[in-house]
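Batch manifest, entry 17 of 40.
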Amino acid sequence: MAYDITKFSMTALMRPAFDAGVALARLDERIARSPVGQGWIERTHFADACASLWIDGELVHLEDLVLHDATRDIRTPTHELTIARDVLRTRQRIAAQLPSWALSAEGIRTLRQTQAWPGASDGSDSTAVHSRVEPTEAVEREGEGDDGDDAENLPGVDYAAIDAVLARSEAAIEDAKRPGRVGANRSAEKDPLVYDLDWDEDARLKEWRDVLRQAQDLPAVLQAIIALDAWNELSVLQHAPWLGRLLAASILREAGITTGAHLTAINLGLKTIPVDRRRHRDRETRLLAIAHGLIAAAEIGLKEHDRLVLARTLMERKLEGRRTSSRLPELVELVMAKPLVSAGMVAKTLDVTPQAARRIVLELGLREMTGRGRFRAWGII
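Output type: C-alpha cells
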C-alpha cells in the first residue's frame, strides 16, 4: 500500500508537466481578463462534475445536473445525479475559499463530511454529523400547458409518506448527534453491505499526506500529478474517489498556477485520455496520462472560452435598440452563467411568468437542447 515517489524516474515527466503548467497559466490569464470569465467558471463547474462521474464509470447528463441544482428536476434524482451534485457543490465550495483551505486539515475534514457516502471523521471534532440530510425543496415544474402557481393538494402525491420520511430523517439526525455515536465505536456501527470494515480511511489519508510532504519541493504541476496518482493508488476514500481530483486542482490553485475562483477542470481533461492509460499498471504511464490530461483540460478550456466570447457577441447584437426596461440583458447574463436554462429558472431569475420567460427565450434565439415538448431547457451549445 506504500507509495514511494523515489522509485520511478521523472525524466520523461518533466516536459509534459512543464507544457501543462504553461498551458494552464495561459488559460488562467485569458479567463482573468475576459468579459465572460465568470460565466466560463460557472459553466466549467457543471461540465467538470459530469466528467467526474464519467471517469468513475457513471453517466450523468449535463441538463439533469443543471436542473437538479436549480431544484427544477423533471424526474426523480438518481444516486449518480446526487453524487454529481456533491462534486459540483464541493468544487464551488473549494473555489469560494482561500487557495490553501482545501488541503488544510480543517478543509479536508470538512470536505470528507460532504461525501454522498459519508466517511469517518478526520480530527478531533467528535460531534460532526456525517449523514447529510437536506430539507426537501419545493420543485416547480413548468412547461407547455403547465404554468399554474398552485402547488398544493397535487393529485397522486402521498403527503403522509413525505411527512413520515421527514420524521425519520429528523430522528436519524438527532440519533447521530448523541454522544458516543461517533469516534471509537463508529466502525462497529457501519453497515458491512455499504462499507469495507477493514478500510482505514484515516491511515490511508495520513499516508497520502506523507506523499504530499515528500513531493513538496517539486514544481506545482508535478506535485498535483503525483498527488492524484497516489490518491488513486491508495484508494483513500471508499465512496469519494472524485475528491482526489479536486484536491489535485487545489494544489495548482494554491501554487498560483490558477488564480481567483478558477479551479482546473482536471476531469474534463482526463476524460479525453484512454482508460487503459489512466489505469495502467506502470506508474510512469499513469503519470504521463495525467500530465496529458492537464494539457487537454487547458486546451478544452481555451476552446470553450472562445466559443462563449463569440456567443456573447452575437447575443449582444440582438440587444441593440432595446428599451432600457428590457429583460434580455439579464437573460444574456443567466445564459452565460449556466450551460442550460429552463423556463422556471428564467422566470425565477427575471421575476417574470413562465409564459413570459419562454417568450423572452425565443426572442434571444436560444437553442432548445432537450428535444421535449414539456420541461424544456435552452442553451447556446
